[in-house]
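User: quick one, sequence for these C-alpha coordinates?
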Protein backbone atom coordinates (compact mmCIF):
# COMPACT_ATOMS: atom_id res chain seq x y z
CA UNK A 1 0.00 0.00 0.00
CA UNK A 2 1.19 3.45 -0.83
CA UNK A 3 -0.12 5.89 1.76
CA UNK A 4 0.48 8.93 -0.44
CA UNK A 5 -1.62 7.63 -3.25
CA UNK A 6 -5.23 8.61 -3.79
CA UNK A 7 -7.79 5.93 -4.58
CA UNK A 8 -10.03 7.14 -7.39
CA UNK A 9 -12.80 5.29 -9.22
CA UNK A 10 -14.64 5.84 -12.43
CA UNK A 11 -18.04 4.21 -12.51
CA UNK A 12 -19.55 3.83 -15.98
CA UNK A 13 -22.99 2.27 -16.40
CA UNK A 14 -23.17 -0.55 -18.92
CA UNK A 15 -24.96 0.10 -22.25
CA UNK A 16 -26.87 2.71 -20.31
CA UNK A 17 -29.88 3.79 -22.38
CA UNK A 18 -30.42 0.25 -23.64
CA UNK A 19 -29.99 -1.29 -20.19
CA UNK A 20 -32.65 1.06 -18.85
CA UNK A 21 -35.01 0.00 -21.61
CA UNK A 22 -34.44 -3.60 -20.48
CA UNK A 23 -35.02 -2.52 -16.90
CA UNK A 24 -38.49 -1.16 -17.55
CA UNK A 25 -39.39 -3.88 -19.99
CA UNK A 26 -37.64 -7.13 -19.03
CA UNK A 27 -39.30 -9.00 -21.91
CA UNK A 28 -36.78 -7.22 -24.16
CA UNK A 29 -33.89 -9.09 -22.57
CA UNK A 30 -32.28 -11.58 -24.88
CA UNK A 31 -33.01 -9.49 -27.97
CA UNK A 32 -30.72 -7.00 -29.65
CA UNK A 33 -31.82 -3.53 -28.51
CA UNK A 34 -31.03 -0.31 -30.32
CA UNK A 35 -31.84 3.06 -28.82
CA UNK A 36 -31.87 5.60 -31.61
CA UNK A 37 -31.93 9.31 -32.07
CA UNK A 38 -34.42 9.74 -34.91
CA UNK A 39 -33.79 12.85 -36.93
CA UNK A 40 -37.20 12.61 -38.56
CA UNK A 41 -36.40 13.36 -42.18
CA UNK A 42 -37.41 9.86 -43.11
CA UNK A 43 -38.59 7.08 -40.87
CA UNK A 44 -35.13 5.58 -40.81
CA UNK A 45 -32.89 8.63 -40.66
CA UNK A 46 -30.94 9.16 -37.50
CA UNK A 47 -28.20 7.42 -35.59
CA UNK A 48 -27.74 4.84 -32.87
CA UNK A 49 -27.38 6.40 -29.40
CA UNK A 50 -26.44 3.10 -27.89
CA UNK A 51 -27.21 -0.60 -28.17
CA UNK A 52 -27.08 -3.57 -25.84
CA UNK A 53 -24.21 -6.04 -26.01
CA UNK A 54 -26.21 -8.49 -28.12
CA UNK A 55 -26.65 -5.83 -30.81
CA UNK A 56 -22.97 -4.90 -30.53
CA UNK A 57 -22.11 -8.46 -31.60
CA UNK A 58 -23.54 -7.51 -34.98
CA UNK A 59 -21.40 -4.39 -35.00
CA UNK A 60 -24.25 -2.06 -34.15
CA UNK A 61 -22.80 0.67 -31.94
CA UNK A 62 -23.21 4.34 -30.97
CA UNK A 63 -23.11 6.64 -33.96
CA UNK A 64 -24.02 4.07 -36.61
CA UNK A 65 -26.75 5.33 -38.97
CA UNK A 66 -30.04 3.66 -38.11
CA UNK A 67 -30.66 2.30 -41.59
CA UNK A 68 -27.37 0.39 -41.36
CA UNK A 69 -28.29 -0.86 -37.90
CA UNK A 70 -31.58 -2.15 -39.32
CA UNK A 71 -29.74 -3.90 -42.11
CA UNK A 72 -27.19 -5.54 -39.80
CA UNK A 73 -29.93 -6.76 -37.47
CA UNK A 74 -32.35 -7.97 -40.11
CA UNK A 75 -34.14 -11.14 -39.03
CA UNK A 76 -32.58 -10.97 -35.53
CA UNK A 77 -35.76 -9.90 -33.69
CA UNK A 78 -34.08 -6.61 -32.86
CA UNK A 79 -35.97 -3.91 -30.98
CA UNK A 80 -35.58 -0.25 -31.99
CA UNK A 81 -36.57 2.41 -29.48
CA UNK A 82 -36.39 6.21 -29.41
CA UNK A 83 -34.32 8.02 -26.78
CA UNK A 84 -36.33 8.80 -23.63
CA UNK A 85 -34.01 11.24 -21.98
CA UNK A 86 -36.32 12.19 -19.09
CA UNK A 87 -36.52 8.61 -17.94
CA UNK A 88 -32.76 8.04 -18.23
CA UNK A 89 -32.09 11.25 -16.32
CA UNK A 90 -34.43 10.18 -13.55
CA UNK A 91 -32.73 6.81 -13.10
CA UNK A 92 -29.32 8.44 -13.41
CA UNK A 93 -30.16 10.79 -10.53
CA UNK A 94 -31.15 7.84 -8.38
CA UNK A 95 -27.93 5.99 -9.18
CA UNK A 96 -25.77 9.03 -8.44
CA UNK A 97 -27.49 9.44 -5.10
CA UNK A 98 -26.69 5.86 -4.11
CA UNK A 99 -23.09 6.15 -5.36
CA UNK A 100 -22.58 9.37 -3.41
CA UNK A 101 -23.10 7.35 -0.23
CA UNK A 102 -19.98 5.32 -1.10
CA UNK A 103 -17.62 8.22 -1.81
CA UNK A 104 -15.59 10.83 0.07
CA UNK A 105 -16.44 13.01 -2.91
CA UNK A 106 -18.20 12.36 -6.20
CA UNK A 107 -18.00 14.16 -9.50
CA UNK A 108 -20.56 13.33 -12.11
CA UNK A 109 -18.91 13.21 -15.51
CA UNK A 110 -21.89 12.39 -17.69
CA UNK A 111 -25.39 10.96 -17.50
CA UNK A 112 -23.95 7.49 -16.87
CA UNK A 113 -20.56 8.07 -15.30
CA UNK A 114 -19.01 9.49 -12.17
CA UNK A 115 -15.62 9.78 -10.52
CA UNK A 116 -15.44 8.81 -6.85
CA UNK A 117 -12.61 9.65 -4.53
CA UNK A 118 -12.57 6.91 -1.89
CA UNK A 119 -9.11 7.53 -0.41
CA UNK A 120 -10.30 8.28 3.08
CA UNK A 121 -12.83 5.53 3.44
CA UNK A 122 -10.44 2.91 2.08
CA UNK A 123 -7.47 4.35 4.01
CA UNK A 124 -5.65 4.36 0.71
CA UNK A 125 -6.01 0.61 0.27
CA UNK A 126 -6.75 -0.77 -3.21
CA UNK A 127 -7.84 -4.08 -1.65
CA UNK A 128 -10.47 -2.26 0.36
CA UNK A 129 -11.45 -0.36 -2.78
CA UNK A 130 -12.10 -3.64 -4.55
CA UNK A 131 -14.40 -4.74 -1.72
CA UNK A 132 -16.12 -1.37 -1.80
CA UNK A 133 -16.81 -1.82 -5.51
CA UNK A 134 -18.42 -5.18 -4.84
CA UNK A 135 -20.59 -3.58 -2.19
CA UNK A 136 -21.56 -0.75 -4.56
CA UNK A 137 -22.48 -3.21 -7.26
CA UNK A 138 -24.77 -5.08 -4.90
CA UNK A 139 -26.41 -1.88 -3.68
CA UNK A 140 -27.09 -0.52 -7.17
CA UNK A 141 -28.30 -3.90 -8.40
CA UNK A 142 -30.69 -4.13 -5.50
CA UNK A 143 -31.89 -0.53 -5.33
CA UNK A 144 -31.96 0.29 -9.03
CA UNK A 145 -31.50 -2.97 -10.88
CA UNK A 146 -28.60 -2.17 -13.20
CA UNK A 147 -24.93 -3.07 -13.68
CA UNK A 148 -21.88 -0.92 -14.26
CA UNK A 149 -18.15 -1.20 -14.86
CA UNK A 150 -15.49 0.36 -12.68
CA UNK A 151 -11.90 1.40 -13.04
CA UNK A 152 -9.90 1.97 -9.87
CA UNK A 153 -6.58 3.79 -9.92
CA UNK A 154 -4.45 6.43 -8.24
CA UNK A 155 -6.05 9.21 -10.30
CA UNK A 156 -8.89 10.07 -12.69
CA UNK A 157 -6.87 9.41 -15.81
CA UNK A 158 -6.00 5.83 -14.87
CA UNK A 159 -9.45 5.12 -13.41
CA UNK A 160 -11.14 6.23 -16.62
CA UNK A 161 -8.99 4.09 -18.91
CA UNK A 162 -9.24 1.12 -16.55
CA UNK A 163 -13.04 1.31 -16.50
CA UNK A 164 -13.09 0.35 -20.17
CA UNK A 165 -11.08 -2.84 -19.76
CA UNK A 166 -13.71 -5.27 -18.51
CA UNK A 167 -17.16 -4.41 -19.72
CA UNK A 168 -19.92 -5.11 -18.88
CA UNK A 169 -20.17 -5.51 -15.10
CA UNK A 170 -16.40 -5.45 -14.71
CA UNK A 171 -13.84 -4.12 -12.26
CA UNK A 172 -10.26 -3.24 -13.13
CA UNK A 173 -7.93 -2.19 -10.34
CA UNK A 174 -4.62 -0.56 -11.25
CA UNK A 175 -2.32 0.03 -8.31
CA UNK A 176 0.21 2.89 -8.42
CA UNK A 177 3.11 0.52 -9.13
CA UNK A 178 1.19 -1.01 -12.05
CA UNK A 179 0.32 2.24 -13.82
CA UNK A 180 3.26 2.37 -16.22
CA UNK A 181 2.91 -1.25 -17.31
CA UNK A 182 -0.82 -0.77 -17.71
CA UNK A 183 -0.64 2.38 -19.84
CA UNK A 184 2.45 1.60 -21.86
CA UNK A 185 1.02 -0.75 -24.55
CA UNK A 186 -2.21 1.22 -25.07
CA UNK A 187 -2.67 3.30 -28.22
CA UNK A 188 -2.22 7.06 -27.72
CA UNK A 189 -5.88 7.77 -28.42
CA UNK A 190 -6.79 6.08 -25.14
CA UNK A 191 -5.77 9.41 -23.62
CA UNK A 192 -8.35 12.13 -23.25
CA UNK A 193 -7.55 14.88 -25.73
CA UNK A 194 -5.88 12.69 -28.34
CA UNK A 195 -8.17 12.84 -31.35
CA UNK A 196 -7.74 11.73 -34.96
CA UNK A 197 -5.51 14.63 -35.97
CA UNK A 198 -3.22 14.19 -33.00
CA UNK A 199 -2.96 10.45 -33.69
CA UNK A 200 -1.73 11.22 -37.21
CA UNK A 201 0.71 13.83 -36.00
CA UNK A 202 2.07 11.54 -33.30
CA UNK A 203 2.38 8.66 -35.78
CA UNK A 204 4.54 10.92 -37.95
CA UNK A 205 6.77 11.42 -34.92
CA UNK A 206 6.96 7.65 -34.49
CA UNK A 207 4.63 7.66 -31.48
CA UNK A 208 1.99 4.95 -31.48
CA UNK A 209 1.57 3.85 -27.88
CA UNK A 210 1.36 5.68 -24.59
CA UNK A 211 4.72 4.09 -23.78
CA UNK A 212 6.23 5.67 -26.92
CA UNK A 213 4.80 9.01 -25.87
CA UNK A 214 6.21 8.73 -22.35
CA UNK A 215 9.70 8.33 -23.76
CA UNK A 216 9.60 11.55 -25.82
CA UNK A 217 11.38 14.56 -24.44
CA UNK A 218 8.85 16.98 -22.97
CA UNK A 219 10.50 19.85 -24.85
CA UNK A 220 9.79 18.14 -28.16
CA UNK A 221 6.16 17.65 -27.22
CA UNK A 222 5.84 21.31 -26.30
CA UNK A 223 7.32 22.30 -29.66
CA UNK A 224 4.95 20.02 -31.53
CA UNK A 225 1.73 20.60 -29.59
CA UNK A 226 2.16 23.83 -27.67
CA UNK A 227 2.81 24.29 -23.99
CA UNK A 228 -0.49 23.23 -22.43
CA UNK A 229 -0.98 20.12 -24.51
CA UNK A 230 2.72 19.18 -24.63
CA UNK A 231 3.01 19.16 -20.85
CA UNK A 232 -0.33 17.41 -20.52
CA UNK A 233 0.73 14.62 -22.92
CA UNK A 234 3.99 14.24 -21.07
CA UNK A 235 2.31 13.91 -17.69
CA UNK A 236 -0.59 11.80 -18.89
CA UNK A 237 1.62 9.30 -20.69
CA UNK A 238 3.54 8.90 -17.46
CA UNK A 239 0.32 8.27 -15.56
CA UNK A 240 0.53 11.59 -13.75
CA UNK A 241 -2.78 13.37 -13.12
CA UNK A 242 -3.36 15.53 -10.07
CA UNK A 243 -6.85 16.67 -10.83
CA UNK A 244 -9.11 16.43 -7.83
CA UNK A 245 -12.49 14.73 -7.90
CA UNK A 246 -14.65 17.82 -7.74
CA UNK A 247 -18.03 17.75 -6.11
CA UNK A 248 -21.02 18.90 -8.14
CA UNK A 249 -21.44 22.61 -8.24
CA UNK A 250 -17.88 23.00 -9.35
CA UNK A 251 -19.25 21.85 -12.68
CA UNK A 252 -18.24 23.37 -15.95
CA UNK A 253 -21.71 24.59 -16.70
CA UNK A 254 -24.96 25.12 -14.87
CA UNK A 255 -28.09 24.41 -16.83
CA UNK A 256 -31.68 23.31 -16.80
CA UNK A 257 -33.70 21.39 -19.34
CA UNK A 258 -37.39 20.60 -19.51
CA UNK A 259 -40.33 19.65 -21.69
CA UNK A 260 -42.70 22.42 -22.82
CA UNK A 261 -46.40 22.14 -22.02
CA UNK A 262 -47.02 22.09 -25.74
CA UNK A 263 -44.88 21.96 -28.84
CA UNK A 264 -44.31 25.42 -30.18
CA UNK A 265 -42.41 27.89 -32.37
CA UNK A 266 -43.50 30.87 -30.27
CA UNK A 267 -40.47 32.55 -28.71
CA UNK A 268 -42.49 34.28 -25.99
CA UNK A 269 -43.93 30.97 -24.90
CA UNK A 270 -40.49 29.38 -24.92
CA UNK A 271 -39.00 32.25 -22.94
CA UNK A 272 -41.62 31.85 -20.20
CA UNK A 273 -40.25 28.40 -19.57
CA UNK A 274 -36.67 29.53 -20.00
CA UNK A 275 -37.18 32.30 -17.44
CA UNK A 276 -38.16 29.74 -14.82
CA UNK A 277 -35.01 27.84 -15.63
CA UNK A 278 -32.96 31.03 -15.48
CA UNK A 279 -34.34 31.72 -11.99
CA UNK A 280 -33.01 28.38 -10.80
CA UNK A 281 -29.68 28.86 -12.51
CA UNK A 282 -29.40 32.36 -11.09
CA UNK A 283 -29.92 31.10 -7.56
CA UNK A 284 -27.19 28.56 -8.04
CA UNK A 285 -24.82 31.16 -9.50
CA UNK A 286 -25.43 33.52 -6.63
CA UNK A 287 -24.84 30.93 -3.94
CA UNK A 288 -21.62 29.91 -5.63
CA UNK A 289 -20.60 33.45 -6.45
CA UNK A 290 -19.84 32.66 -10.07
CA UNK A 291 -19.66 34.88 -13.12
CA UNK A 292 -20.14 33.37 -16.56
CA UNK A 293 -18.99 34.26 -20.02
CA UNK A 294 -21.10 31.92 -22.07
CA UNK A 295 -24.82 31.36 -22.46
CA UNK A 296 -26.13 28.32 -24.27
CA UNK A 297 -29.49 26.95 -25.26
CA UNK A 298 -30.66 23.55 -26.32
CA UNK A 299 -33.78 22.52 -28.11
CA UNK A 300 -35.25 19.13 -28.80
CA UNK A 301 -37.62 19.21 -31.74
CA UNK A 302 -40.84 17.26 -32.20
CA UNK A 303 -38.93 14.64 -34.15
CA UNK A 304 -36.57 14.28 -31.16
CA UNK A 305 -33.60 15.75 -32.99
CA UNK A 306 -31.62 18.04 -30.74
CA UNK A 307 -29.61 21.20 -31.20
CA UNK A 308 -27.54 23.37 -28.95
CA UNK A 309 -26.20 26.83 -29.55
CA UNK A 310 -24.01 29.04 -27.46
CA UNK A 311 -22.97 32.62 -27.35
CA UNK A 312 -19.76 33.84 -25.77
CA UNK A 313 -19.96 37.26 -24.17
CA UNK A 314 -17.35 39.98 -24.47
CA UNK A 315 -16.88 40.03 -20.73
CA UNK A 316 -18.03 38.04 -17.71
CA UNK A 317 -21.54 38.73 -16.42
CA UNK A 318 -23.52 37.59 -13.40
CA UNK A 319 -27.04 38.91 -13.99
CA UNK A 320 -30.31 37.34 -15.00
CA UNK A 321 -31.04 39.79 -17.81
CA UNK A 322 -27.88 38.86 -19.72
CA UNK A 323 -28.89 35.20 -19.73
CA UNK A 324 -32.42 36.08 -20.82
CA UNK A 325 -31.30 38.32 -23.69
CA UNK A 326 -28.70 35.90 -25.01
CA UNK A 327 -31.08 32.93 -24.76
CA UNK A 328 -33.84 34.78 -26.58
CA UNK A 329 -31.47 35.81 -29.33
CA UNK A 330 -30.22 32.24 -29.71
CA UNK A 331 -33.76 30.83 -29.90
CA UNK A 332 -34.83 33.45 -32.45
CA UNK A 333 -31.85 32.65 -34.63
CA UNK A 334 -32.34 28.94 -34.29
CA UNK A 335 -36.07 29.04 -35.11
CA UNK A 336 -35.26 30.97 -38.27
CA UNK A 337 -33.24 27.97 -39.42
CA UNK A 338 -35.84 25.26 -38.91
CA UNK A 339 -39.49 24.62 -39.70
CA UNK A 340 -39.95 22.19 -36.85
CA UNK A 341 -41.69 22.82 -33.57
CA UNK A 342 -39.77 22.66 -30.31
CA UNK A 343 -40.65 20.08 -27.68
CA UNK A 344 -38.01 20.51 -24.99
CA UNK A 345 -35.88 23.51 -24.14
CA UNK A 346 -32.91 24.19 -21.97
CA UNK A 347 -30.58 26.98 -21.04
CA UNK A 348 -27.17 26.93 -19.48
CA UNK A 349 -24.30 29.20 -18.54
CA UNK A 350 -20.63 28.28 -18.67
CA UNK A 351 -17.07 29.61 -18.72
CA UNK A 352 -17.18 30.56 -15.09
CA UNK A 353 -14.87 32.86 -13.28
CA UNK A 354 -14.19 33.50 -9.65
CA UNK A 355 -10.77 34.18 -8.19
CA UNK A 356 -9.87 30.61 -7.33
CA UNK A 357 -11.31 29.29 -10.56
CA UNK A 358 -8.99 31.19 -12.87
CA UNK A 359 -6.74 28.21 -13.27
CA UNK A 360 -8.40 25.94 -15.80
CA UNK A 361 -8.47 22.24 -15.25
CA UNK A 362 -7.22 20.02 -17.98
CA UNK A 363 -10.05 17.50 -18.13
CA UNK A 364 -12.54 20.31 -18.39
CA UNK A 365 -10.34 21.77 -21.09
CA UNK A 366 -11.03 18.69 -23.17
CA UNK A 367 -14.59 17.87 -22.26
CA UNK A 368 -16.99 18.56 -25.11
CA UNK A 369 -19.64 21.27 -24.95
P1 LIG B 1 -21.37 5.32 -22.95
O1 LIG B 1 -21.06 5.09 -21.51
O2 LIG B 1 -20.28 5.75 -23.86
O3 LIG B 1 -21.99 4.01 -23.60
P2 LIG B 1 -22.95 2.94 -22.97
O4 LIG B 1 -23.22 3.19 -21.53
O5 LIG B 1 -24.17 2.83 -23.84
O6 LIG B 1 -22.15 1.61 -23.17
P3 LIG B 1 -20.90 1.06 -22.33
O7 LIG B 1 -21.37 -0.25 -21.76
O8 LIG B 1 -19.83 0.87 -23.36
O9 LIG B 1 -20.56 2.07 -21.30
O10 LIG B 1 -22.52 6.40 -23.08
C1 LIG B 1 -23.58 6.53 -22.14
C2 LIG B 1 -24.88 6.85 -22.82
O11 LIG B 1 -24.76 8.04 -23.59
C3 LIG B 1 -25.34 5.79 -23.80
O12 LIG B 1 -26.08 4.77 -23.19
C4 LIG B 1 -26.14 6.57 -24.80
C5 LIG B 1 -25.52 7.95 -24.80
N1 LIG B 1 -24.68 8.11 -25.99
C6 LIG B 1 -25.24 8.71 -27.11
O13 LIG B 1 -26.40 9.11 -27.11
N2 LIG B 1 -24.47 8.83 -28.24
C7 LIG B 1 -23.17 8.39 -28.30
O14 LIG B 1 -22.50 8.51 -29.35
C8 LIG B 1 -22.60 7.77 -27.13
C9 LIG B 1 -21.19 7.25 -27.16
C10 LIG B 1 -23.40 7.66 -26.01
MG1 LIG C 1 -21.69 3.56 -20.16
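Assistant:
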Amino acid sequence: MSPQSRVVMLVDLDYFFAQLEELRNPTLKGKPIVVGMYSGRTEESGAVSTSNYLARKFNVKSGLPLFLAKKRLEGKEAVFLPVDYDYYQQVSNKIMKVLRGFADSLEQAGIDEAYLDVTRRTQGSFEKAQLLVEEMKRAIKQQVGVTFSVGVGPNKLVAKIASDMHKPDGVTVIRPEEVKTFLSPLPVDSLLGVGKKTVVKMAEMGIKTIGDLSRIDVQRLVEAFGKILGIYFYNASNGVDNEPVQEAGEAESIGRMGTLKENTRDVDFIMQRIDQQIDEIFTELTTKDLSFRQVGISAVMTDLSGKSRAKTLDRPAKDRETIHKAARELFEKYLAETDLEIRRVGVRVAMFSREERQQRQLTSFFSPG
